[in-house]
Each structure stands twice: as C-alpha cells, then as structure tokens.
Design a protein that fits this description.
eleven-stranded antiparallel β-sheet; Porin
Length: 302
C-alpha cells in the first residue's frame, strides 16, 4: 500500500531544493546562499547527496555561464538536520583563463556540516579515451522499479525510497534492501534517471547527478559482506565524496551506474563508481569512503 501523500511530487521537491536564494545579496568574504532542508525526509538526518548538490549549485552561481563543473572534493563534517535550512558560503579561490576554483562551506546553526572544493572549466578539446561500458547489461525498462519492490511495505523509509525519491533507480540483478542473494561480490550496477525533465542548465544536471551518486555508492562494500540495508543495528554514514564529470550528460535520461569496492577496513569502506549514458559514453566518475559499523557479534556476516 502506498501511504505517501497523493499531492507529493518528488521532482518538484528536487528542483525546489536546487533553487538557492542569494540571502538578499548578503556578503562577507564569501558569497552567501540559502537552501531548504528536506521536510519530507524519512529520517532526521539530512541526505548527504542533497548537501553536495546544493553546494555545487551555490559554487556554480559565482562563475560565468561558460564554465562547467568538472571536479569536486568534499568532506562531510557533521550530520545535517533535514528540518532546517542550510546556508552556503562560497569563496572565490581563483579565476583563470580556462579554470575557476571555488570553496563552498555548508552551515547549519553557524556550524559547517560540509566543506567542498570544486573546479570549473570552459569546454575544451584534446586527446580522448575511456574505460568501456560493461557488456551484457539488461535495459532499464526490463528491471523492476523501487516502487514495485518497496511500495507494498508500510514503513516510513520503505515508502520514502519507493515514492519520494526524485530518481527512478533500478538494480541490475538483486538489490540489497532486505537481504543479499547469491554470491557476495564487491560490485554492482544500477540504472537511474530523474522522474521528470530537468532544466537545460548543464551545471544543474551535474549537481543532480552528484545528488543521486550518494544513494547506492556504499552498497558494494555492504554486498561483499552479505550486509543488507535491513541488517539490525547497521550504522552507515558518508565521510567524503569526490566526483569528476568527463562529458556532457542528461540526468533525465537513463544512466548506468557501475560501482565497486576495492577495500573495506577499519569500519570504513572505499567505493568507486562510473556513469555511462546509453550510447556507452563515460560521462562521470565518483569515489566515496563511508563509515559502516555493526553491533559486536552480529551473526551471519562474512
């Protein structure tokens, strides 16, 4: 049963979240912007992908329209509160002939919750190569949606993942929502796209992809050890996030998100991801280390 309000529109929420105000033109040694929290979040903690995306939008507002974000490196410093607005301070570190560098701090209650540096570039040409897209991946239209898998579960988180995410997310093969079926491997693939059309702004598409990249990136570490999201006592939090955009992309069209975990140790899992469009072009890459803890003596975990 879908217990989500009938008038809730996840795409409208995403576009609202990414529409920052300029705080009435307030300036310190930074450009100041303000963005909303997420009143519909199923948990009090603010989703990390949202803060990443908003920080990139804030930084993009301080560069010329000819400059696109090509890389960012961020650290999550404190948990954010989903019920409260976020203030973004952008420092203009450098503007060169082709590149601009910006540092964004995201604040709640005057305290930084995320620190991020992003680089923007005027589009240019040069030598090219890429890692090829994996072969034999089934089309997204043949795979079940999150709503089909989770919509019948009367639980706030299940309902939020089924109906309140602004992205259509479809796992290639088995998901790890409730259990880990088959071989416990440290890799996976999903298809994703926004539920509706996005504005043409390429920086907004890239920020939205940063938002979505945080949904499932830690799953290869969990999958490798037979840990599902429903494992009792599981505690997971993103520690840092790095991303590179290689080519123009449309986040409102299907993208294949391939991820793997080369190492997990010390209650931290490192996970790497690549995004391909349906033409097989590698459009972005991502890396994240996350904290993952289980209660001592948890049975049945590899």
């Amino acid at each position: 049963m879908n217990v989500t309000s009938a008038d809730f529109d996840p795409m409208e929420t995403l576009l609202h979240i990414l529409e920052l105000s300029d705080a009435g033109g307030a300036l310190t040694d930074e450009d100041i912007f303000v963005g909303p929290g997420d009143a519909n979040a199923p948990r009090p903690r603010l989703f990390g992908g949202q803060v990443l995306a908003q920080s990139l939008v804030a930084a993009a507002k301080t560069v010329g329209p000819d400059r696109l974000v090509h890389s960012m490196h961020g650290y999550f410093l404190r948990p954010g509160d989903a019920a409260n607005a976020i203030t973004f301070g952008v420092q203009r570190l450098r503007d060169g002939r082709s590149f601009s560098a910006r540092r964004t701090h995201a604040y709640q209650n005057g305290t930084p919750i995320l620190s991020l540096i992003a680089s923007f570039q005027v589009p240019d040409t040069g030598i090219e190569h890429q890692e090829p897209m994996p072969a034999g991946i089934p089309a997204p239209e043949t795979l079940p949606t999150s709503a089909e898998l989770l919509g019948g579960i009367n639980h706030p988180v299940a309902q939020a993942w089924a109906y309140e995410r602004p992205f259509d997310i479809r796992h290639v093969g088995d998901n790890i929502y409730f259990d880990v079926k088959g071989e416990h491997v440290a890799h996976q693939a999903i298809w994703l796209k926004t539920l509706g059309p996005m504005p043409e702004d390429q920086n907004l598409h890239r920020a939205a992809l940063a938002y979505a990249s945080d949904y499932t990136l830690l799953e290869p570490s969990l999958r490798r050890h037979g840990i599902s999201w429903a494992t009792p006592g599981l505690s997971v939090a993103s520690l840092d996030h790095a991303m590179w955009w290689h080519r123009p992309l449309q986040v409102d069209e299907w993208l294949l998100y391939v991820a793997e975990s080369p190492s997990t140790s010390g209650a931290r899992g490192l996970n790497l991801g690549r995004f391909y469009n349906r033409d097989g072009e590698l459009v972005a890459s991502v890396a994240q280390e996350g904290m993952m803890r289980l209660p001592e003596g948890t049975p049945g975990i590899d």
